[in-house]
Structure formats: C-alpha cells, structure tokens
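Quick one, probably user error.
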C-alpha cells in the first residue's frame, strides 16, 4: 500500500491499494520513435528489429531487417551490442562517423534481457566537441592575426602623441591608417565568428528551399559597385531555376566570397563570369576570372585558414585569409563539393556543386 493511503477514507484507500492494471497501448516501435536520440533495437542474432527516424538519418540508410554490421562497422560497438544481447551489463562506447563528415557519438548499449537482444542509443557529441575546438581555435587565431594590426595601431598612436603632436597633416594621415587597421580587425573578427558558427553546425544539414539563380543574381547586384570601381565586367548566365535544399544566407556568403575573390585578385582580366547549370542531380555554380591565375602548388592549400598566396597583396586588398575556408565548410554542410582549377596567366575557376532538391 502506498504511504499516503492511510489518510484516505476506507473506500478510497481500498481503490489505491488494489488499482486496476494499466496497459500501455503504444508499440515498441512507437517508443523507439519517441526517443530523442538515434536508437536501434537489435535481437539476439544482431538483426535490427526497430530503428527510429533519427537513426536512419544518421546512418543514411534504413537498417531495419538487416544485421547491425551492415550499417555500423565499428568493432567496439558491434562487440558491445553482442555482449549486451547475451545479457551482459550496459556499457558506453565512443563511436565516430567519418562520412559525409566527422561526427562523434557516445553509443549507450543496454541489454533487453538474457538473450533477448539489445538497445543501442547514440548520443551526438559533435556539437559539444566542436564548441571546445572553436573556443581554442578562436583564441589561437585571433591572438595571432590581431597582433599585426594592433601593433600598427599602437605605433600610429605613439607617433600622434609624440613626433606628430602638432602636425595636423601627419595626424590626418595616421588617423586614416588607424581607421584602416581597425576595419581590418573588425572584418577578421566577423569572419572568425562566422567560420566558428558554420563549423559548429556543419554536421546538421539545412532544410530550407533556395533558388541558386536568385542567390547569384542578388550577389551580382550587391557587388556591382565594386565591379565598376575595379573596371571589371561581371556576367551571369543560368539555365533556369536551380532549387537546392539549404540556407539562403550561407549560400549568399558562398557566392559572394567567390565573386569578391575573383574581383579582388582577377580584375586585371577585366571580366568575371558566373555560370549556373544542372549537372545530373546537382546544381553547379562556377565563378571564373581571367586574371593572373594561381600556381599549382598553392591550390591544395587555398581553403586552409589564413593561407594566402601573397600575404601583402591579400592584406592590402582587405582579405582576412578566411573567405575560402568559410566557403569550404558551408559547401560541406550542404553536402556539396568545391573544386578549384587555375593556370598561370589564364585565370582561375572555382566550382561548387550542391545537390538539387529532391
């Protein structure tokens, strides 16, 4: 009898003491589907009896009816599931998925009774680990890259407060340089924060519907002033709507970063061509300049953080060294591909392929 029943009237106490049996109408599959993490139920022979939608999304296949090893090939996880199915205690195992991108999980494996099978629940640790890496990377990168403009600002201030104290012309010159360095720091911090946010969510595929043609047209309008100043013509060609599943803001950032790079470093060719087309199940965006091109040894490293072909030229043009790294991670989040081709004296071509919306 429950302790509180002693204070109830006899009739009510009797009801509490001998309640009607309760029956759960939900099926095992309903319970598995309701779990907040990817979950699979496996029988004593290792065959998957139930897998919720989250598990199917993570594994990118429907494992139900198949042996667990057909979708999870990690020996430690398979051994833990076999042991739990035989009735051994619940255990936690670290599990990583490397395709289409690195994701980290803590696999919790519980027995369902002696020889009855096991329940496998995957807790996603990717975001937590990325946050930790983001903090460490941000501090390391910011401290290194901000040192140069801060040193310059300090030098200008010392000059204004010292030798140029009474020289209005020199003060105006140095204040202009200080403003330029402060703007450079602002762009650097903005790009670092943007890159950190993208990396933190890279494992989560966006769900919106975006017309890549409209994105490219918008970017061309935004950059028209820059193109005029550089005396460079920007052409846009497309073969009809290209609907992809993605984040409009992030795809705008991809096109804008590629087009800005083409204008900054390839404007000597006087033309930048942006083309969009269907390529099988993909929407392909190509940004081509007709400038000096890039030597072959630099191409594999262009998407690294802060890698620059020419450091002084990049900084003089307002580059932070993060634009292509941002492009790479956004494209990866959209399950796409980035390719780069260039030839000295003939310009460079950057191509992005994003899966078309099903």
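Nope, works fine. Designed sequence:
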């Amino acid at each position: 009898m429950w302790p509180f029943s002693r204070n109830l009237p006899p009739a009510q106490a009797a009801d509490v003491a001998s309640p009607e049996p309760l029956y759960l109408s939900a099926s095992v599959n309903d319970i598995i589907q309701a779990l907040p993490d990817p979950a699979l139920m496996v029988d004593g022979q290792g065959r998957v009896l139930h897998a919720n939608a989250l598990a199917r999304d993570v594994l990118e296949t429907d494992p139900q009816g198949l042996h667990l090893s057909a979708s999870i090939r990690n020996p430690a996880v398979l051994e833990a599931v076999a042991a739990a199915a035989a009735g051994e205690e619940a255990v936690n195992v670290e599990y990583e998925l490397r395709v289409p991108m690195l994701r980290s999980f803590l696999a919790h494996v519980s027995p369902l009774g002696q020889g009855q099978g096991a329940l496998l629940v995957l807790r996603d640790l990717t975001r937590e680990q990325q946050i930790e890496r983001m903090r460490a990377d941000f501090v390391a990168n910011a401290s290194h890259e901000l040192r140069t403009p801060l040193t310059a600002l300090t030098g200008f201030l010392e000059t204004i407060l010292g030798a140029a104290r009474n020289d209005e012309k020199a003060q105006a010159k140095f204040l202009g340089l200080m403003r330029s360095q402060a703007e450079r720091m602002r762009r650097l911090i903005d790009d670092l924060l943007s890159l950190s946010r993208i990396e933190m969510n890279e494992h989560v595929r966006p769900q919106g519907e975006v017309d890549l043609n409209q994105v490219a047209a918008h970017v061309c309008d935004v950059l028209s002033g820059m193109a005029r100043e550089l005396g460079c013509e920007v052409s846009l060609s497309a073969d009809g709507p290209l609907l992809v599943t993605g984040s409009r803001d992030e795809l705008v950032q991809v096109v804008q970063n590629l087009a800005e790079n083409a204008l900054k470093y390839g404007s000597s060719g006087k033309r930048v061509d942006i083309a969009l087309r269907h390529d099988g199940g993909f929407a392909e965006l190509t940004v081509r300049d007709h400038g000096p091109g890039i030597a072959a040894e630099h191409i594999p490293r262009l998407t690294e953080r802060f890698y620059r072909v020419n450091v002084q030229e990049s900084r003089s043009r307002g580059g932070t060294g993060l634009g292509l790294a941002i492009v790479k991670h956004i494209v990866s989040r959209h399950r796409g591909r980035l390719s780069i081709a260039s030839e000295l004296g003939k310009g460079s071509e950057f191509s992005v392929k994003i899966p078309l919306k099903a």
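The CA atoms of residues 66 and 125 lie 26 Å apart.
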